[in-house]
Amino acid sequence: MTAFVRVLAAFMCDDIRQEINGKRTFVGVYNPKVLVPSFPASLAFHLVLVVSFESKGEGPFSLRITSEGTEKPMEFKGHIVISELISGEIFTIGPLLMQFEKPSEFSLEAEMPGGWQRIQTWRVEIQPSGGR
């Protein structure tokens, strides 16, 4: 993200529904510990970022997902124009698909002045028997 965009929070969910009144409904919101029934596992999800536009302007933004055991991160690049200062704006990416062969972590990072900043990390694990 550019110097004038700050990520306040990030989470992942199964689906995002756009309501006719402009509201969004986030379906199947994940905790930082993502439980799967077995490995290998496939996860299809959306990323939701809550951001603050701290100054007006325009410029490039870059996000990436890094994952244990993967050499090349999943990258997202674009250009953003900010004409209004807003805190709590919702920015979504997806649907995304990731494969996991074993328990592992993946992280969302944003490019900031001075380098990449980790925003959120999720851990993919086997769901304990008993369902919780």
Short précis:
Helices cover 0% and strands 70% of the residues.
Descriptive tags:
132 residues, Immunoglobulin-like, 5-stranded mixed beta sheet, 0% helix, 4-stranded antiparallel beta sheet, single chain, mainly beta, globular
How would you characterize this protein structure?
The protein has 132 residues and is an all-beta fold. It has one domain (5-126): Immunoglobulin-like (Sandwich). Helices cover 0% and strands 70% of the residues. The chain has strands spanning 5-18, 24-29, 33-36, 41-53, 57-67, 74-82, 87-100, 104-112, 115-126. The strands form two sheets. The chain has a five-stranded mixed β-sheet with strand order 3-9-8-5-6, with no helix packed on it. Strands 2-1-4-7 form a four-stranded antiparallel β-sheet, with no helix packed on it. The model has no long low-confidence stretch (mean pLDDT 89).
